[in-house]
Specification:
It contains 3 helices and 5 strands, in the order αβββββαα. The protein is an alpha+beta fold and 95 residues long. It has one domain. The chain is globular.
Length: 95
């Protein structure tokens, strides 16, 4: 998972206002104190924010493999960030 975490970190930290926080075996990425990405320290899954039909953010799991499409993962991380980022950061260009 260490290699996955390094790749995930590289993607997440490019997004404006992102901070990393570790604890309880997980690594979390936050924007303005709100989590948008969780990486499990015990599995190859990441958890991303996703909007449901009512536009309320929920967590969706995505299992990473050696064959994962990193372009798609980068896009999903950015979309998760957009769900919780403040308007000022979205207007500043986001990704």
């Amino acid at each position: 998972m260490t290699d996955f975490l390094s790749s995930i970190r590289d993607i997440a930290m490019q997004l404006p206002g992102t901070a990393e926080e570790a604890g309880d075996g997980d690594t979390r990425f936050l924007v303005e104190g709100k989590p948008f990405l969780r990486v499990s320290g015990t599995s190859s899954a990441i958890h991303l924010r996703a909007a449901d039909k009512d536009r309320e953010p929920q967590w969706n799991a995505l299992t990473l493999t050696a064959d994962s499409d990193w372009t798609l993962i980068e896009d999903q991380i950015a979309r998760s960030w957009e769900l919780v980022a403040p308007t000022e950061l979205l207007e500043a260009g986001g990704r």
